[in-house]
Amino acid sequence: MPILVKDVMSKKVNTIEENKSVFQASKIMAKSRRGYVIVLKKNKPVGILTDSDILEKVVSKGKDVKKIKVKEVMSSPLITISPDVDISEVSRIMRKNLIKRIPVVDKGKVIGIITEEDIARVTPEFVNIL
Q1: How far is Cα 5 from Cα 110, in angstroms, rounded to an integer?
Q2: What are the two backbone dihedrals, phi and then psi, of residue 108, each rounded to the nearest 5 degrees?
Q3: What pTM does this model have?
Q4: In the beta sheet, which residues pair with residue 105?
Q5: Which terminus, N or C, of the chain has the lesser number of Cβ atoms within 10 Å?
Q6: SS3 of 43, please?
């Protein structure tokens, strides 16, 4: 029996509107102890901002986190997945795109997120694939 994204995804997802500052995004990440926020434009997912994005595109360049908007440094276009996809397919997409997490979207709304760790927890044999 296949294991589907909806069976292992996390339903708690960090989100932020695209016009908010990187500083506000980093506060959300710190509070939740997760290294990402999904960026929304009018409640639709348009990008992702990760802790790596902040380090590489803002901090290391000496930019002011309070002045830089999330939309200026987010990764986009956003790769998303349906909740009914088999996790082997998610693993393939992650490997192909060199990403560690994929937002789960249903009918245009973010309903969860699946990470490498989620997949490894339920299917240890995928660790080498990731």
Answers
A1: 13
A2: 80, 0
A3: 0.86
A4: 110
A5: N
A6: coil
